[in-house]
Specification:
Nucleotidyltransferase, domain 5, 7 helices, globular, 13 strands, ROK family protein, ROK, ATPase_NBD, alpha/beta
Length: 252
């Protein structure tokens, strides 16, 4: 698919960093995909340098026909700074200025948010209280009200029993260990917990392991794809700078 617009038209490079893969696509302001959706494997125990290098390598085939960058990251992010990255390299991500590093390398302003938050912006209807689950390498969540992101909470790290948090309980390592049947039972349990605690209007479930869901979902629960979610990179730039949305400019 050929690129259709030039940088002057405010196109957006949208990037989704996951524990398993890095994905990217060029979007126009409305979220329409202007290039093919590309992805590459996330290096094992990926460091900040690995991730930045992976982004640069992945977008080599893209023309410089964008002037903003959106990044969804698998961890807690504040003001463009990574605070945690539980599924990447251990002890390498505390207080990493990832947004600044990418802005400087690519030469464009960057907005960096949690990956589930970016996916949420891409998939929700914007009506009432909506929750997004991502079930992949780990377990991610996003909370939105009338289409607005609420402050990100790392709900994956709440304990679900005496020995495990949600990441341990429903993440990919658990899937590989216990198999699809037991994993689906666990996901059912989590959905019931969230239904009781949050009384959401709509729940969206994405991530690589969502394809393994084999039980009937209630009418207000929808399966979404990573391709849908990465379009949230366009909506991210429609939001005003505030407590959880922060623009990082490249250093001159």
């Amino acid at each position: 698919m050929a690129t259709e617009k030039k940088a002057a038209n405010n196109n957006i490079l949208s990037i989704d960093i996951g524990g398993t893969s890095i994905k990217t696509v060029l979007l126009d302001e409305s979220g329409t995909m202007l290039t093919e959706y590309l992805k590459s494997k996330t290096p094992p125990e990926a460091t900040p340098k690995d991730i930045v290098s992976g982004i640069v390598e992945l977008i080599k085939s893209f023309p410089d026909s964008y002037n903003r960058v959106s990044i969804g990251f698998p961890g807690y992010v504040k003001n463009g700074i990574v605070k945690t990255a539980p599924n990447l390299a251990k002890n390498k991500w505390a207080d990493v200025d990832l947004a600044q590093r990418v802005a400087d390398v690519l030469g464009h302003p960057v907005r960096l948010v949690n990956d589930a938050d970016q996916q949420g912006l891409g998939v929700v209807d914007g009506k009432g209280f909506e929750i997004v689950f991502t079930v992949g390498t780990g377990f991610g969540t996003a909370l939105l009200f009338d289409g607005e992101l609420l402050p990100h909470l790392e709900l994956a790290h709440f304990p679900i029993n005496k020995e495990e948090d949600y990441d341990d309980y429903i993440g990919n390592k658990a899937f590989e260990k216990i198999g699809a049947e037991r994993w689906n039972k666990r996901l059912k349990k989590i959905i019931e917990i969230y239904k009781t605690v949050f009384n959401y209007d709509t729940l969206y479930i994405g991530g690589g392991n969502s394809k393994h869901i084999d039980f009937k979902l209630e009418s207000n629960i929808k399966i979404v794809t990573n391709r849908d979610g990465i379009k949230g990179g366009a909506k991210l730039w429609k939001l005003a700078d505030k407590y959880n949305i922060f623009t990082v400019e490249p250093k001159k």
